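Hello Y.,

Per our agreement to keep a running log of every chain we model this quarter, I'm adding this entry. I've kept the format consistent with earlier entries: sequence first, then predicted structure.
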Amino acid sequence: MTGSIALIIILIYFLVLIGISYLTSRNSSEKSFFTGDRKSPWFLVAFGMIGATLSGITFISIPGSVYAKGMLYMPMTFGFFFGYLAVAFVLVPLYYRLNLTSIYTYLRGRFGVRSFKTGAISFLVSRIIGASLRLYLVAEVLDIFLFTPTGIPYWLGVLATIALIWVYTFKSGIKTIVWTDTLQTAAILIAAGSTIYFLADLNTDGFSGLWNMLESSEMFSFEGGNLKQENPWLGLFNGIVFAIVMSGLDQDIMQKNLTCKNAKEASKNIFWFSLVLIPINFAFLALGVLLFETFMESGDLTFQMVDFVNDSGLTDQKPLYQIRLGAEMVDVTTDQIYPSLAKYGYFPLWLSGTFLIGLIAAAYSSADSALTSLTTSVCLDIVEKQDKKTRTWVHILMSFVLFGVIMIFKAINEDSIVWALFKWTGFTYGPLLGLYGIGILTKIQVRDKAVPFIAVFSAVSSYFLATYLGLGFEILAINGAVTAIGLFVFKKRKKIDLV
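Predicted structure for the entry above:
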């Protein structure tokens, strides 16, 4: 696929998104940006949330991770389901009962202003990191498809991408996002399904041959792939915690759910969405296995362990993936395997175009809602103003913040995006888990002034624990526990009347 074709596809897709924005922004009020007027059909929100949850991370990183980790992500997916049940039947009714627009307002009423601000800042840091990582991942792929072939500088391409997101989210915010997410989810699923169809067409036995290939693969393992073994039960536990924190305590995800007419419809939306997410994640993992098996067997994709000198000056080993480009083998990261097959002629043009649309959809289904939720949180939680002028400047500021963080990631050149994302959010989301856990499960009152210090101590101490002990995703639960202990230690003491 040439850069010109990629550019045309992207421009057409954005014109569709802008058209949706125009239609949904009619008769919108200033409040529509934040609440969507509480009129979104639950099934529309549920379908759109699939795309927002999958994002570019699942679309690219998950298929690319199976050689190292096998089907290890699947136990986490089952954990997500149970975590979403807690969100649907505990947190959502609470938010609706309190008539919240920003979910962190709960902390103001429960503990005080400093707790409220601490929760909002924890979200802002977490979402900025998460959204920037997702956009960075997709920008790296767009660099292969579009920026480099057309001579567009990387920084300019990223800036233009964010500017286009700003254009179609500025007017109606979450009201538009609910509808664009529906289109984006459809594009993601069509792209993945089309790739599986193409692989079945390559296989002489069709879909039955693909299933046999999947079952016989060493990567079809729930205890790890070729390189790493991990405990699937720990993955299940981590999935439960992550779903509660990264959905139920996340303004980005919950803002969409709070556009439903009432708590019952919002809970119904989350239940069905979480149920459907299980086979969809399985399909993406299976797709990764089939890509590796198909193209490694043909010799077009290779893997080997190579020596390198680490930061300590010692010789270590790391995985090296290569894909055939003409007569040469080109180095690729795990996140580039699926995109490189689409770019370098291994897929027919129609499938490469479908992949590109799915990729863009995956990126913007998370990035556009992140930009909207960041704007909402800053307006309602930090500056506590909702007027149009404030919203406009905050929306612009958040766009430049995302751009700046993406360029930092580019300079760092961080690999294995999906695991880096979960690692960092474990440190920043942990205080939210502790705050809401103590707030909902106990009746104690804490010293509001101490909460910011407790949150910082929890995040920093968790970082050192994770580094020293080599901990994985479970650091999120530990982080939340440290915060909860700190809140309990600094709880308000009841005065005793002396007789």
